[in-house]
Each structure stands twice: as structure tokens, then as C-alpha cells.
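Need a sequence for this fold. Nothing fancy.
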């Protein structure tokens, strides 16, 4: 679990790292990224479904985080703010892909992608996991995002609400509906 509060002088909080990074301390920003990059990449890989594209969008997210550090409220959780930016970057990516598809360039980009699977992808291709992933992907974004942020990233309903600009109750309802939809689909496919 990412460290957001300073419990030990040797381990600065996210807020302390942001303050240092704002004053020009680049290693402090590097520490922030190292601390949260796995969570952000995991979130983006579930949103984008292509590891290479998710990696590119993660890089765009890190650049945006750096450029926007002056706007970050250090009284709030850094990771929730980072997820807001990552979510927006994922949406931008999807919009670009739709535009490229409309123009007819998207197929050419897909053919240029590397066909070499990595070990994580081979594990994900197992039948049961693959079925669940497909069902999660089929969920509308408004249900998929809160489910992933809750189940995979361990964010509270309040933090998810901050990421999605929703009330805590709305987040709770969306997670309930996502789980219900997944259960119904799994029972149908048996």
C-alpha cells in the first residue's frame, strides 16, 4: 500500500515529496513516481487493454502530474489526484483511437505492434482469468472504473468519489451494480 503519511523521518509523505518537487527537487518527484507507478500502470492497463499503449499513457500521466504539481492540494491524497489525471489521459487515448479508426489509420498502428507476449500476458491468457477480464471490459466505463479502483487498487469509496467526481453513495451503487452484472454474466456463461 502506498505511503501517504510520514511515519518515519526517513520516509517522506507524498505531500512532503510534492512540496520538495515544487521547489525544484527532481529526485523527490522521482520518488513519488516510483511509489505509485505500479498502481497507475495497473489501472491504465485495465482501462486501455494494450500494454504498450497503457505504458505510453502512463508516461503521459507522469508528465501531466509533473506539470500540474503547482495545482495539487497537499491536504488531499496524491494517488487519488494521480488517478484523476490517469483517467483523463485514458479518455484522451480512447478519443484519439476513435479518430484514427474513423480516418482509417488505426489498423496500420495495430499491425505495427509487437506480437511478442510477455510473461504477464501469458498468465492473463488463462481461460478463467481471460473470461473475467472480458466481462470487466464489457462493463460501461462508469461501472468499470469504480470497480477496478476499489477491487484492484484498494481505494475507499471517498477516494473513488474524488477521482470520478461522484458522491460516496453513487460510488457504492456503481460498485454494487458492477459486481451484480459480473455475477449475472458469470452464472449465465457457467
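Here you go.
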Amino acid at each position: 500500500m502506498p505511503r501517504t503519511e510520514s511515519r518515519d523521518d526517513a520516509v517522506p509523505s507524498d505531500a512532503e515529496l510534492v512540496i520538495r518537487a515544487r521547489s525544484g527537487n527532481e529526485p523527490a518527484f522521482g520518488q513519488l513516481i516510483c511509489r505509485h507507478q505500479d498502481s497507475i500502470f495497473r489501472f491504465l492497463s485495465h482501462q486501455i487493454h494494450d500494454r504498450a499503449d497503457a505504458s505510453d499513457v502512463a508516461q503521459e500521466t507522469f508528465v501531466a502530474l509533473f506539470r500540474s504539481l503547482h495545482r495539487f492540494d497537499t491536504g488531499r491524497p496524491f494517488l487519488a489526484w494521480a488517478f484523476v489525471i490517469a483517467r483523463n489521459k485514458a479518455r484522451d487515448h480512447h478519443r484519439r483511437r476513435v479518430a484514427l479508426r474513423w480516418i482509417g489509420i488505426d489498423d496500420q498502428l495495430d499491425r505495427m505492434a509487437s506480437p511478442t507476449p510477455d510473461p504477464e500476458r501469458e498468465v492473463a491468457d488463462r481461460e478463467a482469468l481471460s473470461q473475467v477480464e472480458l466481462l470487466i471490459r464489457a462493463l460501461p466505463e462508469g461501472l468499470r472504473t469504480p470497480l477496478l479502483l476499489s477491487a484492484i487498487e484498494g481505494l475507499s469509496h471517498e477516494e473513488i468519489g474524488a477521482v470520478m467526481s461522484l458522491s460516496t453513495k453513487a460510488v457504492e451503487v456503481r460498485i454494487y451494480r458492477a459486481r451484480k452484472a459480473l455475477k449475472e454474466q458469470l452464472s449465465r456463461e457457467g
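For context: Residues 117-190 form a domain with the Arc Repressor Mutant, subunit A fold (CATH 1.10.10.10).
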